[in-house]
Amino acid sequence: MSYLVTIIAFIIVFGVLVTVHEYGHMFFAKRAGIMCPEFAIGMGPKIFSFRKNETLYTIRLLPVGGYVRMAGDGLEEPPVEPGMNVKIKLNEENEITHIILDDHHKFQQIEAIEVKKCDFKDDLFIEGITAYDNERHHFKMLESLSLLKMVA
Q1: What does the alpha-carbon distance between residue 38 and residue 44 come to, in Å, rounded to a whole number?
Q2: Distance (Å, rounded) from C-alpha 128 to C-alpha 90?
Q3: End-of-domain residue from the set 15, 44, 69
Q4: Of 32, 68, 108, 119, which residue is the least packed, with the fewest Cβ within 10 Å?
Q5: Is residue 13 located within the same domain as residue 60?
Q6: Which residues are catalytic?
Q7: pLDDT tens, 7-23?
Q8: Nearest in space to 56 (alpha carbons), one of 75, 73, 41
Q9: Alpha helix (H) ranges present in 56-98?
């Protein structure tokens, strides 16, 4: 019987530790303006879930860890579509390092672009018309691209 109590106590303590650790990831990601579509404790099939704002909170069957899925991690659907207006931040090689999905005062100095074509799976590019010269440009994306959406 004492083995069973020890195992249950270990799972509870480990679960609390994982929850606090993963919450730290989510707290600072949201503070930096990164969307977090999912916060999960455990791995495997979902046994309980609920949605609050943009985040789906889940408890999973196997108590062996947890994760926070952030925007840009394993893109299921492209976050940017033709016709959208986004802001982009470029590096020295004129490659996109950040895509800002909303208009916020912190990003006033970054280039605004109306997206005409984009590929987030194979060629990793955005093609669009920039606001400063009203001409079509082709920008390559870095694989480590960050998607930012400011939170209130």
Answers
A1: 14
A2: 14
A3: 69
A4: 108
A5: yes
A6: 22
A7: 999 989 998 999 999 99
A8: 41
A9: none
